[in-house]
Amino acid sequence: MADLSLKNWIPYKLVNREGEIQCHWLNTFDKQxxxxxxxxxxxxxxxLNSEHAGISSISDLALFEEWGQxxxxxxxxxxxxxxxxxxxxxxxxxxxASDKHIVLPEVPFFDDLLRLPYQHKDFDAGTSSRxxxxxxxxxxxKRRSAERHLFVKTDSWHMFFYPQLRQLYPNIxxxxxxxxxxxxxxxxxxxxxxxxxxxxxxxTIFGFGTDDAAPQAQDMYIAKVLEKYLQQYLKIILTDxxxxxxxxxxxxxxxxxxxxxxxxxxxxxQDTAAMDExxxxxxxxxxxxxxxxxxAPIPPCLHKAMExxxxxxxxxxxxxxxxx
Length: 324
Fold this sequence. Notes:
Blueprint: E1 9-17, E2 20-27, H1 38-48, E3 58-60, H2 61-67, E4 76-82, H3 88-95, E5 101-105, H4 108-114, H5 116-119, H6 125-139, E6 149-153, H7 162-168, E7 174-178, H8 181-190, H9 203-206, H10 218-239, E8 243-247, H11 252-262, H12 269-278, H13 303-319
Parallel strand pairs: 4-6, 4-7, 5-6, 7-8
Antiparallel strand pairs: 1-2, 2-3
Helix pairs in contact: 4-6, 8-10, 10-13
């Protein structure tokens, strides 16, 4: 039976305290997760929790797993992967327009768990997977009667955990979003992200090794990361049969309708109208009307990524629709 005292509580970060991994918790106070990124949601929740700031809500990982049993949860409807700056944030924002959806955009705690084996020698992928399944229960708690679907938008580098995630969720649709690499490159140059700065994410996650070392110059590094992303997508579609390829160029409303159909998610006319209105505004700044920024000419360092992009586009057009 579920422990009702845990309803609305989520684990939000791991802390290494003298060799022991501790789990820190936040009360969500039944708040809907609606911010473009989940770290923004955490900041707001910390504000709500501030009156109890003197009390630390901490457990070890054994209790974290034990307490996760028996929660009333919504199972994932789809995982949304992306190569960054390709419309995934706006798509997750559109999904929040319906009170039937729980939307989890780039949850830091999920990233902590997936990268745990890279940072602590006592943890392996099997333990990471078990902990992630438990974490998904806390974040997917059914807190309102209307909730029917759970959408998980991953961090961009989580595509390299594809074998692990597919093993955990063999029948869940995986959405693979991408965009012209030059447009992504131009955006990451203007506004850097974790995956665009050498060393902020473990190089081995991207597949960089001794024979293919990560370049340190930013332009070359971004270009190589985009190559790795597109190569990974091409690998995934060779063996998977539950994926949907989406190009940013299709536009937000056509993409959201494809995702809804692919994940067996019914959108009401009210949902569609609200999503259409939200699609006119910036994904990360909802009060600002969106305007497209023209990318610079393609630099030589992107030639390989452009070739891979063309190959992926050919696959998308050849398939016509994603495999069922």
